[in-house]
Write a structure and sequence with these properties.
The chain is of the alpha+beta class. It is 50% helix and 15% strand. Strands 2-1-6-5-4-3 form a 6-stranded mixed sheet. Helix 1 runs antiparallel to helix 2 and helix 6 packs across helix 7. The N and C termini lie far apart (53 Å). About 5% of the residues have low confidence.
Length: 303
Amino acid sequence: MNDDIDNATETFVGYRELLFSVVYNMLGSVADTEDVLQEVWLAWQARVRGAEPIDNLRAYLTRMAVNQALARRSALARRREDYVGQWLPEPLLDSDATADDGAANVLRTESSSMAMLVVLESLTPLERAVFVLNEVFAYPHTEIAGMVDRSPAAVRQIAHRARAHVRARRPRTQVDPRIRREVTERFVDAAMGGDLEELLAVLAPEVTLWTDSGGAGVATSLQPVHGRAAVAEVFISVAAAGLDGYRVGWRTVSGDPCAVIFDGDAPLAVVVLDIAPDDTVIGVYSVTNPAKLTRVSDPDPAR
């Protein structure tokens, strides 16, 4: 019996990175992802006791995780109906993950970026699961079919529909990480300094600002703010109100550079930018909900 449990533990740990990545891409919440993985672990532990060996452990565990995540989506949908203001995915900051944490080695792909996760929220739970499994993790349609209890033909149609929807809202683009960092620094310097001219220069005409406070953190707007002039005005107003005592720490979210605004030693906001091919800011995502910042540490608390 002990050997069975030891083998089950070793197997689960070996696949935990993959399972965390799949579920986080489906839910956009670290806390809910951890809860799902706990349920998968308990179910897996019960399954292996005296049971016949499984041929494809990767597919079996992924199926368990996907189905638990789909069930969790229903609870999340109900929770978000009562959410105050805009909802953004919980930022998964690379440097805040610990070595024994499922977040530590989450796969860094475009589909884990804040901008893509926002787009994925517009899909149905099943569409999102199929998209993540096929586009991000390269599972074939035939294998996904067994995971979501659909025929391969049905999965192929779902994948096509989801892919078309995502690409219409977010065409594939590649921006050099160094340019991302440079543009992020320009934007933060201009926003914190109240430099209207520089803000207007770095923002795209069609830029949108999303602020997620959950009714508990600071928020500039409960609705998205669209357009360069309107977004710039928001940040000029914030700067005019006074930013003394605040400072910026630099992190990465799923491989993208971001700014963390600290009030003393406490994180006040995580700001992630979506950069257009012309190196202007097309999206600003500001997460200020304290519940989503609990994993954010201060890089220099003594400063």
